[in-house]
Amino acid sequence: MFLFTVCALITTFSQLLLAYPGLLFKKKASYKNFYILSDKVIEQNLQKRLDSIAFILEETGFYKEDKIKIIFCHNNRLAGLLNIISLSPTGAGFHHFSGNIYLFNTRIKAFRAENAKVMGDDRKLIEYTYQRFELDDILTHEILHQLHSDSMGLWEYKRKLPPPHWKAEGFAEYYTYIREKRKNENYDFRKRVALYLRYKDQFPLFYYKSQLLYEILAEYQTLSFNEIMRDEITEEKTISKLTQWYNEN
Questions:
Q1: With 0-12 CB in 10 A as exposed, 13-18 as middle and 19+ as buried, what is 82?
Q2: Phi, psi of 94, deg, nearest 5
Q3: Which tens digits make up the pLDDT trace of 201-235?
Q4: Is 64 in a helix, a strand, or coil?
Q5: Please, which residues bridge with residue 73 across strands?
Q6: Among residues 44, 89, 98, 111, which one has the least CA distance to residue 71?
Q7: Mind listing the pLDDT tens digit for each residue in 147-170?
Q8: Nearest residue to 134 via CA among 26, 21, 19, 56
């Protein structure tokens, strides 16, 4: 019983720390509906970047100008601690259920440096995805997780812990890059599907796949967000639809 109580207290404290991180991040700024915390001096051009991100978010139809808290973490030790207590996979950042968006700037730079070495089809497999590791894209992606939660309601979102992972990531990936893809006259969905089918058994293409699945449902099956979120829309059925569409087109 004592051990259970200690574990419950540690868990509660860690989640409160993630929800209210002001003690750990001394640099603060506010712009429009964005509230920024950082453990390092906040960059001067951040307002311009936030304007661009807000424009993308507005086009999704899910964006409301509620307060969005963004935490930039540059310290790797602190980033490691936050990852542990958040129970999130080690990566570039995460969306906490409190609505806070955490980004790990140093890791993002390191991932981008690795991407610079990638060539050929491997480079195509990170186009229009989170794994391109562009800071603005990652921030947009994580905010979209918050908008997804807002659209469903927090308790419904958490009840499904979150909605099937491919839907949560597919939604965020689709809307992060939809404007960029539509502006590119050379964008070819079929070629991207072909690339996925060629490499799906060789690489972990989760973000890439999830985006394709959301895209086939939203643009080719013309399903709404609420329709896509229905339980009967499963990953297996959607992969089947994607493969069938590819074979027929």
A1: buried
A2: -160, 160
A3: 888 899 999 999 999 999 999 999 999 999 999 99
A4: coil
A5: 104
A6: 98
A7: 888 776 655 555 555 567 899 999
A8: 56
